[in-house]
Amino acid sequence: MSVFLGYARNLFQRGPGTSAKLKSVSTPLFYRTPSGVALLAPAYIALDVFIIINTVNVTWRNWRDPPKPSDEGQLPPLRSTESRLAVCAMEIMVGGFVAAALLIRRAQTAKLFALLPPQASKLKNNQRVFLQSAGNWRDNGKIYPLSACTLTRVRKDALLLQVQGLYGGWQFDMEKSLVLGRAAPSVEDACRDIAIQWREAGGKGTILTE
User: Fold this and answer.
1) Helix (H, G, I), strand (E, B), or coil: what is residue 10?
2) Which of 28, 68, 118, 136 is the S-S candidate for 114 at Cβ 3.0 to 4.6 Å?
3) pLDDT value for 11
4) How far apart are CA 28 and CA 38, in angstroms?
5) pLDDT of residue 20
6) 61: alpha, beta or left? (left if phi > 0; alpha if psi -120 to 50)
């Protein structure tokens, strides 16, 4: 439950990022076409809604008391309205949690990540990053200040971008990804290329352990 509440807070609190639409990013630091759950989440959610609607309909119209000998030749009466409402509410709640989990998985899977040129400003450390998740359509995404971002290796084949003030993070699946516009020979090479660019830009976090 705390996971859902954490991501819900992200929707209502003002974080350091700003919505943006970039039609062209010269050479993204990271790009990967969404796959698996991140790609198919809308279809799974549609199936989830279909199943829940039918389950609730069956429960409401057909959930009856156990048959009694005196009910011979007749259908037992329906369960009480309160009982059917309670079970239908539980079914809707379970379906809602499944849909929310799918949406979170899609929204927190990184699709494109780029380092942007610094803004024309007298302030130091004004480097920015542009992030698109699997849930972003077309050229839409978010711009965050580099100083608020931490990029860390959490698995052999995955990085995690965390932004100060926001719950959770965005996962970078390194398998079959493009780094600086090209496919790296291995996941280790891809992580090393990202680490070099990230360190040069002044980014925080540990990508390589050696």
Assistant:
1) helix
2) 28
3) 61
4) 20
5) 85
6) alpha
144 near 166, Cβ under 8 Å? no
pLDDT at 7: 64
Note the pTM of the prediction, 2 decimals. Answer: 0.81
User: H or E element: which one contains 5?
Assistant: helix 2-12
In this structure, which amino acid lies at residue 100? A
User: Among the listed ranges 17-21, 61-65, 71-75, 186-190, which one has the minimum average pLDDT value?
Assistant: 71-75
Beta-sheet strands, E only, within 11-100: 18-21, 30-31
Neighbours of 132 (CB within 10 A): 23
Question: How far is Cα 158 from Cα 172, in angstroms, rounded to an integer?
Answer: 5
27 and 64 share a domain? no
Q: Please identify, among 104, 123, 144, the residue that sits at the C-terminal boundary of a domain.
A: 104
DSSP class per residue in 80-102: PHHHHHHHHHHHHHHHHHHHHHH
**pLDDT digit string, tens, across residues 161-195:** 999 988 889 999 999 999 999 998 899 999 999 99
Q: How far apart are CA 147 and CA 169, in angstroms?
A: 15
* Residue 26 shares a structural domain with residue 125: yes
- Residue 66 sits in which domain range? 41-104
Pairing between β-strand 182-183 and β-strand 149-155 as defined by DSSP bridges? unpaired
